Amino acid sequence: MKFLDALLGRSRPAPPKLDALFGVSGAAITLEAAAGMRPTGQAAVCFHPASGQGFAAASEELKELLELAIAEAGSTLKVTDDRYGYRWVVLADPEMEDLVTSVHLVNSTLEQHGFGPQLLCSVFGFATADGAKRFHLVYLYKRGSFYPFAPLGGERRDNELELQVKAALGGDLPVEPELARWFALWGLPLD
Amino acid sequence: MARTRFQADHGLSSRMLLTMFLLGLLYVVFVAVLVALKIPLILVLLIAGGFLFFQYFFSDRIALASMRGREVSPEQAPELHQMVDRLCALANMPKPKVAIADTDLPNAFATGRNQQHAVVCVTTGILRRLSEPELEAVLSHELSHVAHRDVAVMTLASFLGILAGFVVRSSIYAGAYGGGGWGRSNNRDNNAGAVILLVVLASAVVYALSFLLTRLLSRYRELSADRAGAILIGRPSLLASALVKITGDMSRIPTRDLRAAEPLNAFFFAPALAPGFSFSSLFATHPPLERRLEQLAQLEAQLGRPA
């Protein structure tokens, strides 16, 4: 099929893989034990907004669903657009399990409305207890894999920390094997 | 299969398939004629194949060098890299090299034989003129060219043209100097001359036909890339506005720049044509602007429908 697609100049939108997301709760425990990194209680879903009424309707439904879910779980929510035109739904909840469930809710709602291909990534914040070191665990939907992104000031990355996290996560989560796909997410709206 | 809001365009696929079939048919007929006329086919195929090989393996470097594009690192062009990074993650493809060509001509192109050896190049002119979302739309069009392996497909498709052109030239050469170099050695001179004339005629016809078919194929590939690019970012109108802006700007650029870039048109986002140069739509590498805008408007309408 790949050959035929190339021949006919078609590309199929990459479907998102959502199941691996639930592995994050378990990985958080490993990370705390192995590297002393704890969840910051913040997570975000990033997607590319589409135009048209179909997307507007999906966004509206998503907002209602989230407000209901959040009222129950006692977490908070904000939506921001970054300078590259991608939309971030930022969720905060001290309970990691609830956070993961909320992130999955955002993803599956978008997917049900046919906007699965628009999903870019989900991000979970982690930091040491004193806050000196922090990194974001990024989930790539299309690959179904995770990678750590540790920004320092001035658009530099703490590669050492990223590789430490990769080593610690090894058994728990599918870590993205191609380092070239560990792209930087500058200006992501998490603390 | 992922759920998507866009319908497959079977018409475009089948027209493209028909074009390729005709090219293949032409190829078979041409080779049959050469065999029937006892042309040393192996030699011809080897030489034409050599050209093809060179073009295939060095397409990225040739195109970059002729546009004077230079590869840029993420530190040199952080925003451009970030856009490409994100689009590649959305499309689930490896990241190509990113290059910038220092020319005021507003354009972009992608080249490279496969996803591992691809380059996406934008000009400083396009960086200056387009807004960031529009630039992103242009990049998604170019990345679709990479995903569809258009360089490989178009190189293969143009093989027949190269072959026919080569046979014409070498036959004329053989006729002028060898007095029947292609013909059998026991043939009389007038017999050999007739064979050469036939070969030249057949090759010229094949060349013309394959040229038209290749151009037709190129236009279909552009429509495909527009379509896939618009679907990738989910905003067809952005690509349309980038197209209008670039083609509108094209006519205001000094003519000398445009002429210098014309041979590279096939790789471009929008063709650079000097004004006043009448170009039949049959020979164009890109579909007319109206056709591209119409397709994007259809996609936009599909997005508007409720789920």
Task: Please describe what this structure looks like.
The complex is a heterodimer of chains A (191) and B (307). Chain A is an alpha+beta fold and 191 residues long. Chain A has a single domain (14-174), classed as Ribosomal protein S10 (Alpha-Beta Plaits), CATH 3.30.70. Chain A has helices spanning 2-7, 23-35, 53-73, 96-112, 159-169, and strands spanning 37-47, 76-81, 87-92, 119-128, 134-140, 145-149, 151-152, 156-157. In chain A, helix 2 crosses helix 5 and helix 3 (53-73) runs antiparallel to helix 4 (96-112). In chain B, a hairpin with a 7-residue loop joins strand 3 (108-111) and strand 4. Helices cover 65% and strands 6% of the residues of chain B. With 307 residues, chain B is mostly helical. The interface between A and B is large, with 47 and 54 residues.
Give a short synopsis of this structure.
The complex is a heterodimer of chains A (191) and B (307). Chain A is built from five helices and eight strands, in the order ααβαββαβββββα.
Please outline the helices and strands.
The complex is a heterodimer of chains A (191) and B (307).
Chain A: H1 2-7, H2 23-35, E1 37-47, H3 53-73, E2 76-81, E3 87-92, H4 96-112, E4 119-128, E5 134-140, E6 145-149, E7 151-152, E8 156-157, H5 159-169
Antiparallel strand pairs in A: 1-3, 1-4, 2-3, 4-5, 5-6, 7-8
Helix pairs in contact in A: 2-5, 3-4
Chain B: H1 10-36, H2 41-67, E1 69-71, H3 78-91, E2 97-101, E3 108-111, E4 119-123, H4 124-129, H5 132-147, H6 150-157, H7 159-178, H8 189-233, H9 236-250, H10 255-261, H11 289-304
Parallel strand pairs in B: 2-4
Antiparallel strand pairs in B: 1-2, 3-4
